[in-house]
Design a protein that fits this description.
Strand order of the largest sheet: 1-3-2-4-5
Distance between the termini: 121 Å
Radius of gyration: 36 Å
Order of helices and strands: HHEHEHHEHEEHHHHHHH
Number of strands: 5
Shape: elongated
Number of helices: 13
């Protein structure tokens, strides 16, 4: 009778001393600086079918005898992401755990999972509670296609955590030092190329080149991935909604020819997109040099009739070949 009374008195203390699975996992995570060191027993505990938490488990082989170079390379990244997760509010942090299990510590686990190489990261989502995403105990496997860096790992695992992992890349002091060392070199180079950068004709040539690229359809063919020529060998695509690569070269040459005509005439008149850049430059530089207003007006009247032949006529001819259904012949 006395023993029964003592046992009843000790029962509350025994129940209080018994830890729940979550409390044990929380304590193990705190002991391992955010990463639980697993063995076979704790692995079964963490991946219990009836769990209201999720877990990211790194399966690795860090024993030097295993000679697993990728394991040593990926280990610090996994540790960094786990450390970032340890800074989260405990209310969210205790709903997801980071753990690591070594081949030499739990061979049977690797055998049960059928893992023949390392490293591998399995994500076990919650199967119960408000964070449950599935009722099955099958894990998600991390995709190493982005390498062993920590940022891709954090971004992909964030889709399985209650809140995104607050990972930030550490400062790359090597890159910072390299950039600082480039400052005197850039200053020295700039000293010699400064006259070139301040030359207005250099900027004018770059403007004309850029406008040629943009108006010839080069960006269109790069974005759409259109072929260089048609299967039958023709280089001109029908209609105005598509264009071949060789057609871009023809349009570029046409624009360059129109610019040469404009430059050789010594005048400027923005009559088409092809000569817009060159005409704009000449308009600023040459027209103000005409001291007589009447001479300027005479030049404008002459340009109105002359530019139609030199600029618009070739464009209309090309457009008529590209789209014969449109009555371009009415314009010339």
């Amino acid at each position: 009778m006395l023993r029964l009374i003592i046992a009843l008195l000790c029962l509350p203390f025994c129940l209080a001393a018994q830890k729940s699975p979550r409390d044990e996992l929380v304590q193990l995570a705190a002991t391992g600086n955010g990463v639980i060191r697993l063995d076979e027993r704790t692995f079964d505990l963490l991946t219990s079918p009836n769990r209201d938490w999720s877990a990211a488990i790194q399966l690795t082989a860090l024993n030097p005898q295993r000679r697993c170079g990728p394991c040593k390379e990926f280990g610090p990244s996994f540790q960094a992401v786990a450390k970032a997760w340890s800074t989260v509010n405990p209310e969210q942090r205790n709903n997801h755990f980071f753990a690591s299990i070594d081949f030499d510590d739990a061979f049977q686990v690797f055998k049960k999972l059928g893992i023949m190489s390392a490293p591998v990261v399995h994500v076990y989502p919650a199967t119960e509670g408000p964070n449950a995403k599935t009722t099955r105990n099958d894990p998600f496997k991390y995709d190493f296609s982005n390498g062993f860096e920590a940022r891709p790992l954090a971004e992909q695992l964030s889709s399985h955590t209650p809140i995104p992992i607050p990972y930030k890349d550490p400062i790359n002091w090597t890159r910072v030092t390299s950039l600082i060392s480039l400052i005197p070199i850039v200053a020295l180079v700039f000293r010699f190329i400064r006259p070139v950068l301040q030359n207005r004709w250099v900027w004018a040539a770059n403007t004309i080149l850029l406008s040629t690229i943009m108006t010839s359809g080069y960006m269109f063919t790069r974005i759409r991935g259109t072929p260089y020529v048609a299967p039958d060998g023709s280089w001109l695509a029908a209609g105005f909604q598509t264009q071949y690569g060789q057609e871009v070269q023809v349009v570029s040459l046409l624009c360059a020819w129109l610019r040469l005509l404009t430059l050789s005439s010594g005048r400027a008149h923005a009559s088409s997109d092809g000569v817009l850049a060159g005409s704009f430059v000449l308009l600023i530089l040459l027209v103000p040099q005409q001291s007589s207003p009447s001479r300027q007006r005479t030049a404008d009247i002459h340009l109105d009739s002359d530019q139609f032949y030199h600029v618009l006529y070739p464009c209309f001819m090309f457009s008529d070949v590209k789209n014969r259904g449109y009555p371009f012949k009415l314009l010339f």
